[in-house]
Amino acid sequence: MITATPSNESMSTSSSRRKHGHPNWAVVAAVAVVVVAIMLALTARHDTPKLNIDRGAFRMPTPPVDAKYSGGNTLASIIWLGVVALVGFGLAIRDFARSRLPLAMFVTISAPMIIFPEVFVDVMGAVWYPLSESDNVFTILGRQMGTFIIAGWFGFGSLFMYTIYKVFERGLSTRGIWLAFLAAGIGSIVFEEILQNLGGMYLYYGNQPLIVLWKLPWWWMPCNAGGVFLAAAIAYRLRDSLRGWRGLAMLVITPASMGGVYGFIALPSWIVVNGKYNWWVTQLGGVATLVLGVVCVALIIRLVLNRDPWDLSGDAPQRVPAQDYVPGTVK
Predict the structure, then answer these.
(1) How many CB atoms lie within 10 A of CB 169?
(2) What gap in Å lies between CA 225 and CA 159, rounded to an integer?
(3) CB atoms closer than 10 angstroms to residue 320
(4) Which of 255, 259, 258, 265 is nearest to 296 (CA)?
(5) Distances (CA, A) of 98 to 91, 101, 102
(6) Does the residue 67 lie in any domain?
(7) What contacts 282, CB < 8 A, 6 or more positions away?
(8) Closest by alpha carbon to 206, among 219, 191, 192?
(9) Does some domain include residue 26?
(10) pLDDT tens-digit profile of 221-243?
(11) 120-138 residues labelled b (16+ CB within 10 A) or e (exposed)
């Protein structure tokens, strides 16, 4: 009887993949299917949202303009989000005191600039802020934006952009980088579920997919986490070029990063949010955004950080001094 044995080449390839920390894709696919199935099952608990479609020229869901503003909840949220923001900024100040390098500080203080792309993604993603004559910082595209959204992005953005930047700076493994992105995503869910359940500050309308727990549509999670992830990655990649006051460029890089990530991954969800689709098509749009979010982060790890995104045990590439920099290497 002839027994087939694996060739040396196939054994070497398998061993090499295990050595370099690549995942077992069959296991990854199985876990992904289970996770998506659980998310869909949890989403199915909620009633289908009632859509108020504009019957005029646009034929899109209309915002709930009669939603009530809560000054008390807004003030309480500004306070606790401000405390979170000061934690991130305080850690960055501590870094500056030790290293005399201000880039981490500029990374954290750039977070409130996300309020500008926020207006545009809110229009496309169907988010409404109840109107208040006393709380109106600026208006773009007819959307009134108050002090809460500034505190919100300063809190979430500064803390997680700082954390992700430090993960890059300390040269943690690629597994650590993925975990940092996951932590930002989980943080986004926690922050928003708290704010949504308090009420009176902002709400989602339209045909929102993947409302998994209580009120947050989870397709927003990879968009927000991916935006701060990209901004931190660019800051790290350009850290030699952003020395000193040049770090103020983060005030432009951060909102551009957020807008870029939304543009790359949010389109499937934007389509279903702004239309009247059946339940399965609606959820498919949300799942597509989640999948594109993973693709987006993998591309950031590959193209910005110059790492193999699937080599989970991989370390940071060797840093090349500025004077010895050659195009195509990490600087």
Answers:
(1) 18
(2) 12
(3) 13
(4) 265
(5) 11, 8, 10
(6) yes
(7) 207, 209, 272
(8) 219
(9) no
(10) 999 999 999 999 999 999 999 99
(11) ebbbbbbbbbbebeebeee
Three-state secondary structure string covering the chain = CCCCCCCHHHHHHHHHHHHCCCCCHHHHHHHHHHHHHHHHHHHCCCCCCCCCECCCCCCCECCCCCCCCCHHHHHHHHHHHHHHHHHHHHHHHHHHHHHCCCHHHHHHHCHHHHHHHHHHHHHHHCEECCCCCCCCCEEECCEEECHHHHHHHHHHHHHHHHHHHHHHHCCCCHHHHHHHHHHHHHHHHHHHHHHHHHCCCCEECCCCCCECCCCCECCHHHHHHHHHHHHHHHHHHCCCCCCHHHHHHHHHHHHHHHHHHHHHHCHHHHHHHCCCCCHHHHHHHHHHHHHHHHHHHHHHHHHCCCCCCCCCCCCCCCCCCHHHCCCCCCC
Interatomic CA distance for residues 309 and 329, integer angstroms = 16
Q: Rounded CA gap, 8 and 48, in Å?
A: 56
pLDDT by residue (tens digit) across 93-144? 999 999 899 999 999 999 999 999 999 999 999 998 888 878 888 888 888 8
Residue 195 falls within a domain, yes or no? Answer: yes
* Position 246 in a domain: yes
The span from the CA of 262 to the CA of 270, in Å, is 10
Tokens, residue 211: 């409302």
d(CA 118, CA 121): 5
The predicted model scores a pTM of: 0.85
Whether the Cβ atoms of residue 162 and residue 111 lie closer than 8 Å to each other: no
Model confidence band, residue 199 (pLDDT cutoffs 50, 70, 90)? confident
Rounded to whole angstroms, how far apart are CA atoms 305 and 126? 33
Please tell me the distance from the alpha carbon of residue 216 to that of residue 195, in angstroms, as a whole number.
Answer: 10
Instruction: For residue 62, give its domain range.
Output: 35-324
One-letter amino acid for residue 253 of the chain: I
The number of folded domains in the chain is 1
Q: Are 223 and 267 in contact (CB under 8 A)?
A: no
